[in-house]
Design brief:
Layout: E1 9-12, H1 19-49, H2 56-84, E2 89-91, H3 92-125, H4 130-133, H5 136-159, E3 171-172, H6 179-184, H7 191-224, H8 229-258, H9 266-291, H10 293-304
Parallel strand pairs: 1-3
Antiparallel strand pairs: 1-2
């Protein structure tokens, strides 16, 4: 009967049950989080103050930097607190809130990366019509559409959690609350939740992925038609940063949620989650700084001032 007792609190096992390792992990992930905040703030600041970066590509990049700050802040502060806490617990409402904002940020980032892919497609494949296809109004509509789509995706998934009841043991073998892990602890049917996840993953997730793939097929096709090697390199350099970010984020996210159940591993699951929820938000501003000449020049001007 104890296993059927309803619970309102969960225990997060975190990355390790070794108490001696907790401080070491805290000292590793705290700098990562600070670098994430500072790096993305710098990108947003330099885009704001440099008139040469007031273009659609950097408008989307500014949105991405703000999103990465929010995205990282959903899970990392709680994880840092748990490294130093004796009781690593989170309330049911806190867990649902974390899942809501996590899905919100993940969904928005996928949609925003799709918008950025289309922007690069328009710039490389239709340069003469670029200013018409990607006007400031279109940029705002695409960015707003990404945020609204991510919000609606998260809202629908989270609303279906409210009617579930959770029973003991209330242990989550992870450093944060994630929707698939929480569903495993439900003592009521999760069929509706699973159908919602499947429906939204198939329609929104794969639609975004299709747009990214289709855009890069067009981009690569156009680049290959350029006669000079210098021209091909210049064209590809404008989308190299975005492509790198897409591979980092979407690749690890799809490994996390689309792998077969037979290949489940708690350790691998945590490592993959760290990659796309902790490391990728930190790496994004570094990737755009190293691979983008205009951003590097703007940062150098900022530091000289």
């Amino acid at each position: 009967m104890e296993n059927q007792t309803a619970v309102n609190e969960f225990v997060l096992l975190g990355l390790s049950d070794n108490s001696a390792l907790q401080l070491v992990l805290f000292l590793i992930f705290l700098p990562i989080y600070l670098i994430t905040l500072v790096g993305n703030l710098l990108i947003m600041l330099v885009i704001r103050i440099d008139p040469q970066l007031h273009t659609p590509m950097y408008f989307f990049l500014s949105n991405l930097s703000f999103l990465d700050m929010c995205y990282s802040s959903v899970t990392v502060p709680k994880m840092l607190d748990d490294f130093l806490a004796m009781q690593k617990t989170i309330s049911l409402h806190g867990c649902i809130a974390q899942i809501f904002f996590f899905i919100f940020m993940v969904g928005t980032e996928i949609f925003l990366l799709s918008a950025m892919a289309y922007d690069r497609y328009a710039a490389i494949c239709n340069p003469l019509r670029y200013s018409t296809l990607i006007s400031h109004r279109v940029c705002v509509q695409m960015a707003l559409g990404a945020w609204i789509s991510g919000f609606l995706d998260s809202l629908v998934n989270t609303l279906f959690l409210i009617d579930l009841h959770f029973c003991r043991p209330s242990i989550i073998n992870h450093f944060s609350c994630e929707l698939p892990l929480l569903l495993q602890l439900s003592c009521t049917s999760t069929f509706a939740n699973e159908m919602v996840i499947l429906t939204f993953s198939m329609t929104l997730g794969f639609a975004s992925l299709f747009l990214i793939v289709a855009s890069y097929i067009g981009i690569i096709s156009t680049i290959l038609k350029i006669s000079s090697a210098e021209g091909r390199q210049k064209a590809f350099s404008t989308c190299a940063s975005h492509l790198t970010v897409v591979l980092l984020f979407c690749g690890t996210a799809f490994i996390r949620y689309m792998r077969p159940a037979s290949g489940y591993s708690d350790t691998l699951d945590k490592l993959v989650s760290i990659q796309y929820s902790v490391l990728t938000p930190m790496l994004n501003p570094i990737i755009y700084s190293l691979k983008n000449k205009e951003v590097k020049v703007a940062l150098q001007k900022l530091f000289r001032k």
